[in-house]
Amino acid sequence: MKVSTVLIAIGGAVVIAAAGAYAYANRHPEIAAITPPSRDSLDASLVERGEMLAGIGNCAVCHTAEGGVPMSGGFGLPTPFGTIHSTNITPDAETGIGSWSLEAFVRSMRKGVDREGRHLYPAFPYDFYTRVTDDDLEAIYAYLMSLEPVRAEAPANDLGFPFDQRILMAGWNLLFLDEGPKTDDPGKDDVWNRGRYLTEGLAHCAACHSPRNVLGAAVRSGDDAYSGGEAEGWYAPALNAQNHAPIGWNADTLANYLIDGWDRDHGIAAGPMMPISNDLYHQPEEEVVAIATYVADLMGSASGQSAGAPDSARQRAESLEFGAEDAPALPTDPVLARGAEVFADQCAVCHRADTYTVPLALTGSVNAPDARNFIQTVMHGIQPAPAGSADRFMPAKGLQIGDDDLAALTAFVRGRFGPGDPWDKLDETVRSLREGAE
For residue 354, what pLDDT is reported? Predict the structure, then answer.
């Protein structure tokens, strides 16, 4: 056995032992089970507010398996450490949280510990939900207890050793859990502070839009916070000054995108972002505007651009479209030429200068630092479209376009409509995403 392997094994054993000792010293007691409250006993206004807050927190996105009953769990979330399955959070007393008191629910949201005293994995983003106030947690609890109980046992997690040892989460929490709500920033207005509260807490935007360290914790501060991450095989774009949009975002365009899932200068929500937009579509506009205000501040104001910059970017993007006057000549490179042929055959009917689609040169998928979002969108399409933009669907092309042609198409689109630098390893990326979809 190599010395480096031995050292890693010894280091892992030390970490596990230290985490185990810490977990034992800080073990959490079981909280007594309760009888689920009757729906009639719940405050209707509290339930209504809790439903809104659960929508902002996107609870149903992760706590619903494909084809399953909302909130009944079973969704498999892939992580670098294995697959974690979400649990049932309907008020079923045996397989859900019906036996959980408010105290047990608050502990799970604040500390990542379930009613029986077991550590939860941070795939359940309690490191964000810990920011939520007592009043809002009580409202969410009331809403969940108002749901129809569903008997549904979550599948076992698929985690290898040592990640299947929950005691490790005690050490993880010691390192990365900054517990409790934060006070408002007196130097900012109420809208900004509300936006920070929602973004950093319930909406847990950094869970996808920030990189994660080797132990799976999202970067929450410094220049790397909100500098881009990934979710379910998709790239989650940066929400700070490193965002790659050709036309800068502002609070208005972000609010449009978050509510409708579409903006004329940025494109349409797809992949894991679409259900987020669909949830926000049903929430009070002022709450979404608050999130947009805070995120726009993270990015830096688009008003810093010269007055003609957005118009110039639009004109450039429109001039690159198929059918545009003085459009660029088709490439002669064999791969790019093949990509252009595929584009003309499969894409140009909709993506032309005389259509109402967002010019490709403005879209996030074409300007992203890697090709995953573009490839995923071509393979899977955008169907159904976001709730706020129901007429803007895109058909899936995964069956019509083979791997080699998809790689060529991707190279052509990046070269024709992108910022200039080509994406690399396209053949490998296409194969990997195709295998992941099967």
Answer: 82
pLDDT of residue 21: 61
pLDDT value at residue 306: 47
Dist CA 202 CA 53 (whole Å):
8
Choices 1.10.10.10, 3.40.470.10, 3.30.1360.70, 1.10.760.10: CATH for 322-437: 1.10.760.10
Amino acid 303: pLDDT:
44
Nearest to 173 by CA among 106, 228, 120: 120
Nearest to 77 by CA among 138, 123, 134: 123
Closest CA to 53 of 120, 131, 152: 131
- DSSP letter at 111 equals H
pLDDT for the residue numbered 4: 52
Identify residue 23 by its one-letter amino acid code: A
Question: Alpha-carbon torsion 422, 427, 430, 433, what sign?
Answer: negative
User: What does the alpha-carbon distance between residue 266 and residue 311 come to, in Å, rounded to a whole number?
Assistant: 13
Q: Identity (one letter) of the amino acid at 15?
A: V
Q: In terms of Cα–Cα distance, which of 120, 134, 226, 139 is closest to 180?
A: 134
Residues of the chain with pLDDT under 50: 1, 5-6, 9, 13, 303-304, 306-307
pLDDT recorded at residue 16: 54
User: What are the respective helix, strand and coil percentages of the chain, to the nearest 5?
Assistant: 45, 5, 45
Task: Give the DSSP H/E element, type plus range, for residue 179.
Answer: none
Question: In this structure, are residues 145 and 77 in contact, taking their beta carbons and an 8 Å threshold?
Answer: no
Altogether, the residues listed in the chain come to a count of 438
Residue 1 pLDDT: 45
CA-CA distance, 137 to 218, in Å (whole number)?
A: 23
Q: Where are the domains of the chain?
A: 3-176, 322-437
Whole-angstrom distance, CA of residue 229 vs CA of residue 219: 10
| H or E element in which residue 206 lies | helix 206-209
* Separation between Cα atoms, residue 157 and residue 129, nearest integer Å: 22
Residue 308 confidence (pLDDT): 56
Burial of 135 (0-12, 13-18, 19+ CB in 10 A): exposed
263 token code pair? 């903006």
pLDDT (0 to 100) of residue 391: 87
Question: Measured between alpha carbons, how far is 149 from 437 in angstroms, rounded to an integer?
Answer: 32
Q: Name the H helices within 243-319.
A: 251-260, 273-281, 285-299, 309-319
Q: How far apart are CA 379 and CA 373, in angstroms?
A: 10
